[in-house]
Amino acid sequence: MALRGNLRDFNITQLLNLVNLANKTGTLVVEGPSETAKIAFRDGKLAYAEIGNEDGSLASILHHTRKLSSGQYKSIRQGAAHISDKELGLLLINAGYLSQEDILTNLQQHFTDIVQRMFTWVEGVFHFENDLLPPDDRISVRMDLENLIIEGSRQMREWEQLQDEIPSLDMALKFTDRPGTNLRNINLSVEEWRVVSYINPRNSMRQIASATKMNDLEIRRIIYSLLQAGLVEVTRQTGAVPQPPSVRVFPSDNKEEQKSLVNRLINRIRSL
Amino acid sequence: MQTVKMVVTGPFSAGKTEFIRSVSEIDVVSTERKVSSIQEKAIKEATTVAMDFGRITVDDDLVLYLFGTPGQRRFDFMWEILSEGMLGFVVMVDSTRPETFREARSILETFRAYAPTPYVVAANKQDLKDAWEVEDMRHALRLDSKVKLVACTATDRDSVKTILLELLYSILNEMENGGK
């Protein structure tokens, strides 16, 4: 039976469940909103994953997770570009840079991240190619799917809940006008701070997501946490024409207005 | 509502939090909080960063935000994010800890590379007996004579105002002289 369809009717979590129960071997190809993902399985276990045009080589993965420095990564790309991931892995282990466990852990996390990114895909065509295995020059793993399936189900529920809380990303945010409210005892994550730096009634949530390279789920999650903390509130986006999200020094390009603004700041600081 | 931003940076424990706290109309953020169940799951493995965030409302149409960078070196990748769009920055230096001067200089050079905006170096904790003389610090920090190095006591509001005003004067000066 041809395993093919649309994510509208059969989502990623359900597909993983099917592969797991049927102990399938082959590759699931999913054409998502803006890129195509390929996830390979062997006997119902996750073996490999790649997405879009991303460089899924071992060197790239280890560089991304900071196991390899930029200098080391560059050296490998220049001097060892012709060797396979398996050979590179052995070289790194024999040279004492990394252990086998390090390499496998990093690969597993990379593949898991790819699958988790796909959990937010609600539209896309998929098909399963039986017996299509990962590329020969790449390292396969053997990961149980149960935890991924549980995580996928949880994310679906969270996604639905966040969509209820923040139905539209075309609204903007502003900082709350209630000084002191809930601003004590808050520890923001790196990603939350990144979003905070863009908060301005001129920037819609969608634009902030684009600037911070977050998907719909990630940006809703962060905004929800900021809303819960009382730091921000939703507002209409100001400005007649939506602009790319700006982190501008001055709100205006007019030099006289800029000087006036600085003088207003000076007067205000003096009055403190 | 228009917003502008200044960044307060410097080595760990230089006085960034106290600086912002002295003038901010809102309490400066830090420490743990109870989170909702959704958030707990969302950030279960996220690194949290205690950064300082303060605000001064200028008028109905203008707000100044003060961002304090994380003091720990391992969060230095946040500096570039925070420096985007800033009016200028303040580098806090603990005048009683010369072992931090080198790091302060490194931070200064890093921020200068991020953006060609005016800055002031604040020689903090000048009220303490072990504080170095400001001009000795200038030599130790290898600061050009044109760089504003200003004595500061971050817990004293007037002192903090002086630093911010010096920075604003530099910004205005640069605008009037075309960045010379």
Number of strands of chain A: 7
CATH topology of chain B: Rossmann fold
Mean pLDDT of chain A: 84
Strand fraction of chain A equals 5-15%
Determine the mean pLDDT of chain B. 83
What does the oligomeric state look like here? heterodimer
> Which class best fits the helix and strand makeup of chain B?
alpha/beta
Please state the CA-atom Rg of chain B, rounded to the nearest Å: 17 Å
Task: Identify the overall geometry of chain B.
Answer: globular
Q: Which strands sit side by side, in order, in the main sheet of chain B?
A: 2-3-1-4-5-6
At the fourth CATH level, what is the homologous superfamily of chain B? P-loop containing nucleotide triphosphate hydrolases
Number of helices of chain A: 10
Q: Strand share of the residues of chain B?
A: 15-25%
Q: Helix-strand pattern of chain B, N to C? A: EHHEEHEHEHEH
Helix content of chain B: 25-40%
Order of helices and strands of chain A: EHEEEHHHHEHEHHHEH
State the total count of DSSP E strands of chain B: 6
* Biggest sheet statistics of chain B: 6 strands, mixed
Biggest interface and which pair forms it? Answer: A-B, 48 and 55 residues
Give an overview in words.
The complex is a heterodimer of chains A (272) and B (180). Chain A is an alpha+beta fold. Chain A has two domains: 4-162, no CATH class; 166-245, Arc Repressor Mutant, subunit A. Chain A is 44% helix and 14% strand. Chain A contains ten helices and seven strands. Chain A has helices spanning 12-22, 58-64, 70-79, 85-94, 100-118, 146-165, 190-196, 205-211, 216-228, 255-271, and strands at 4-6, 26-31, 36-42, 45-51, 125-130, 172-175, 232-235. In chain A, the strands form two sheets. Chain A has a five-stranded antiparallel β-sheet, covered by helices on one side. In chain A, strands 6-7 form a two-stranded antiparallel sheet. In chain A, α2 packs antiparallel against α3 (70-79). The longest helix of chain A is centred in the middle third of the chain and has 20 residues, at 146-165. With 180 residues, chain B is an alpha/beta fold. Chain B has one domain (2-177): 3-Layer(aba) Sandwich (Rossmann fold). Chain B is built from six helices and six strands. Chain B has helices at residues 16-23, 37-42, 77-83, 101-114, 134-140, 157-177; strands at residues 2-9, 52-59, 62-68, 88-94, 119-124, 149-151. Chain B has a six-stranded mixed β-sheet with strand order 2-3-1-4-5-6, sandwiched between helices. In chain B, a hairpin with a 2-residue loop joins β2 and β3 (62-68). Mean pLDDT of chain B is 83; it is low at 31-47. Chains A and B meet through α6, α7, α9 and α10 of A and β1, α2, β2, β3 and α3 of B.
